[in-house]
């Protein structure tokens, strides 16, 4: 089980403008102002597929909130961020609105770095206990992990508020010496704002909690639980945790507009843009502004995966993940970047790759993506929004359609309600 899809989420891509060899590619698009509406865009002998052109709706209704991509807290590219309001359980005054919370459709639940929470609020958010022991979680992501206690809070986003306090993770509120040696610690610790590239993570994917029965069943939890009981705050050991006490996706706890979300991002230039502003819409088919029409719908597993998708003739697990800042997949025919941009692809000309998405409902559709050299894109150190950035993923069994896929699209997520006899999880666009 994983809280986050297995995909590299690279950070800190550039601190200064560097010289690159592919300046002709920039010139071919008018110095970075290329049209998003061309049937294709030619760059340095290659071509990109037509870019989608949907615009986000205005974030003026109660079930909406603006999404911003820009420099953010630490200059990390392609980080979509919203503001989230956290209140102490039962209080309407001991609250704090925290900006720069990453919108992540590939994970589930709210996680906030402890250093950005006001001391008065933090002290009111008491850790959940299991058998008298403090409950903590090691949330494992592709590029590291977050370690901290599980606490309850009332969550408000835009005009939507959870009907009660729900479990969330406070990142970095426990000393690094308490990180368990078994079951946690793969990759780098991301317990500070600079490490995370955001003040927190808002996981709003298809699952209602971040672990489910894997962590509630004692037999499975003994080997796979994300959760740890820490008697006296130390000596943390894996523990089963009832689903009601697991870190929860806030959306199912809204009184209305609680069956899913729509991530709407504007088109951006093929050579990048300094910023982008989209809209996060809550609910699917619950209001006039969130109708499920004119889209292809793919039913998925509980975590939003389409396991029967195909790339380069090989079956892959495909997923649409706003929390990944590039496309990530394995392709030995694409040149890799040097050490300056390790992990990204740097083809000598523009490239197009096509993935066949296959839902559990057998809906099939080809998704064509464009790829430009990361070195070319990063030559403009003022750009933070990119629609054709790609990088490596371990092996050839996964294909991560990260944030570049979202530009110019409305991407729908239906939250898994099968435990209550409701809808099957799905994605649509």
How are the elements arranged and paired?
Elements: H1 23-28, E1 40-43, E2 46-49, E3 64-69, E4 81-87, E5 95-104, E6 108-113, H2 119-124, E7 129-130, E8 133-141, E9 144-157, E10 160-161, E11 166-171, E12 188-189, H3 193-196, E13 200-204, H4 213-216, H5 218-224, E14 227-230, E15 237-238, E16 260-264, E17 276-282, E18 297-299, E19 306-311, E20 314-320, E21 327-329, E22 351-358, E23 364-371, H6 374-377, E24 390-391, E25 398-401, E26 410-414, E27 426-428
InterPro entries: DUF3443
Signal peptide: 1-27
Keywords: Signal
Write up this protein:
This protein has 429 residues and is mostly beta strands. It has two domains: 23-56 and 288-428, no CATH class; 64-253, Cathepsin D, subunit A, domain 1 (Beta Barrel). 7% of the residues lie in helices and 34% in strands. It has six helices and 27 strands. The protein has helices at residues 23-28, 119-124, 193-196, 213-216, 218-224, 374-377; strands spanning 40-43, 46-49, 64-69, 81-87, 95-104, 108-113, 129-130, 133-141, 144-157, 160-161, 166-171, 188-189, 200-204, 227-230, 237-238, 260-264, 276-282, 297-299, 306-311, 314-320, 327-329, 351-358, 364-371, 390-391, 398-401, 410-414, 426-428. The strands form four sheets. It has a seven-stranded mixed beta sheet with strand order 23-22-19-20-25-21-24, with no helix packed on it. A six-stranded antiparallel beta sheet has the order 3-17-16-26-27-18, with no helix packed on it. The radius of gyration is 21 Å and the shape is globular. 53% of the residues are buried. The model is unreliable at 1-39 (pLDDT under 50).
């Amino acid at each position: 089980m994983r809280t986050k899809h297995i995909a590299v989420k690279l950070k800190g891509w550039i601190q200064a403008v560097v010289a690159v060899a592919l300046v002709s590619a920039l010139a071919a698009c008018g110095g970075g102002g290329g049209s998003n509406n061309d049937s294709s865009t030619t760059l340095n002998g290659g071509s990109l597929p037509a870019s989608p052109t949907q615009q986000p709706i205005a974030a003026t209704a109660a079930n909406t909130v603006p999404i911003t991509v820009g420099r953010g807290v630490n200059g990390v590219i392609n980080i979509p961020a919203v503001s989230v309001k956290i209140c102490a359980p039962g209080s309407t005054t001991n609250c704090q609105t925290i900006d720069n919370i990453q919108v992540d459709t590939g994970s589930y639940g709210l996680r906030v770095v402890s250093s950005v929470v006001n001391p008065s609020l933090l002290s009111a958010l008491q850790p959940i206990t299991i058998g008298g022991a403090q409950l903590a979680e090691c949330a494992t992501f592709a590029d590291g992990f977050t370690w901290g206690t599980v606490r309850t809070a009332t969550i408000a986003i835009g005009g939507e508020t959870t009907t009660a306090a729900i479990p969330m993770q406070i990142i970095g509120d426990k000393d690094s010496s308490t990180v368990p040696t078994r079951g946690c610690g793969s990759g780098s610790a991301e317990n500070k704002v600079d490490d995370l590239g955001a003040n927190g993570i808002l996981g709003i994917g298809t699952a209602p909690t971040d672990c489910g029965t894997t962590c509630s069943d004692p037999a499975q939890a003994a080997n796979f639980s994300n959760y740890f009981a820490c008697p006296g705050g130390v000596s943390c050991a894996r523990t089963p945790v009832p689903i009601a006490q697991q870190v929860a996706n806030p959306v199912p706890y809204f009184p209305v507009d609680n069956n899913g979300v729509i991530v709407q991002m504007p088109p951006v230039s093929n050579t990048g843009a300094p910023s982008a502003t989209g809209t996060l819409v809550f609910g699917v088919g619950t209001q006039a502004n969130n109708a499920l029409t004119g889209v292809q719908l793919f039913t998925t597993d509980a975590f939003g995966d389409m396991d029967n998708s195909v790339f380069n003739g090989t079956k892959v697990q495909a997923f649409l993940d706003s929390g990944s800042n590039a496309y990530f997949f394995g392709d030995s025919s694409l040149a890799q970047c040097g050490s300056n941009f390790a992990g990204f692809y740097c083809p000598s000309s523009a490239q197009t790759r096509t993935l066949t998405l296959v839902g559990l409902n057998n809906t099939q559709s080809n998704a064509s993506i464009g790829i430009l050299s990361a070195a070319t894109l990063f030559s403009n150190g003022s750009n933070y929004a990119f629609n054709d950035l790609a990088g490596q993923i371990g092996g050839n069994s996964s294909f991560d359609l990260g944030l570049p896929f979202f530009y110019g699209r409305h991407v729908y997520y239906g939250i898994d309600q099968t435990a209550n006899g409701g809808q099957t999880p799905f994605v649509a666009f």
